[in-house]
Amino acid sequence: MIALHFCFLCSLLVSLLRGYKLMHARGGAQIAPQRGAPSNVALHAAPDQRRNYYHCGDNRVALVTGAGRGIGRSIAKTLGGSVSTVLCISRTQKSCDNIVDELKSMGCQSSGYAVDLADKDQVTELINKLLAENKTIDILVNNAGITRDNISLRMRSEEWEDVLRTNLSSLFYVTQPIAKRMVSNRYGRIINMSSIVGLTGNAGQINYASSKAGVIGFTKSLSKELASRNVANLVAFLASEIAAYINGKVFVIDGGLST
């Protein structure tokens, strides 16, 4: 069965992604929840010590863009405890190598790919290569994003175009071929990272806010197309089997900023 969920909208994701701290011990060792975790959740480590509470299924393959640092790195590491393979895309080879090494040290299979997501040809070539090498990509996290802040009256055309190409156009070029494979396989999770400024706007970020508002529109529209095809979208628990009934929603995680 294929579950349904879509856009993940946040300015800070770390508290969600950290979840529970797995103690690296023998099978049956207790998992110690971090501060603030529900005290009534009793968890025990599975024989596979990487497996966390948000298990996404055996032999699943995840692809994370912008995985080399920040939120993307946290997402990749969280998924590393939930799936068998995490494919990482970052702008530099060094950042790719670093996250791949971390994932492998966890016992997760991983490969890294240095790509400029603003370059359509590079993106298309890489995604075609990954789909040729992997029968399936089960979980796609479109996390990569950049900022080029300036007030609108002074913003240069390249500042506008760089942000829109990286944050929005790449979303289409990465997602389209992978979504086709997900539809064929009758399984998929697509997680699109937006920002609170995609809802509220922000002075000096007309390019960034426009790109993130576009991510929301992209996600909502795609959910209407793919819902009947059993393809779903979101991170950690939303990429797991327990979130099968969530679809087409924007989740604002901003510590109450927009309340």
TrEMBL record:
Residues 60-245 form the Ketoreductase domain. Residues 1-19 form the signal peptide. Keywords: Signal. The keyword Signal applies. Gene3D superfamilies: NAD(P)-binding Rossmann-like Domain (3.40.50.720). It holds the Pfam family adh_short. It catalyses: a (3R)-hydroxyacyl-[ACP] + NADP(+) = a 3-oxoacyl-[ACP] + NADPH + H(+). GO terms for biological process: monocarboxylic acid metabolic process. Its EC number is 1.1.1.100. It is an enzyme of class 1 (oxidoreductase). One of its GO terms (molecular function) is 3-oxoacyl-[acyl-carrier-protein] reductase (NADPH) activity. Belongs to the short-chain dehydrogenases/reductases (SDR) family. This is 3-oxoacyl-[acyl-carrier-protein] reductase.
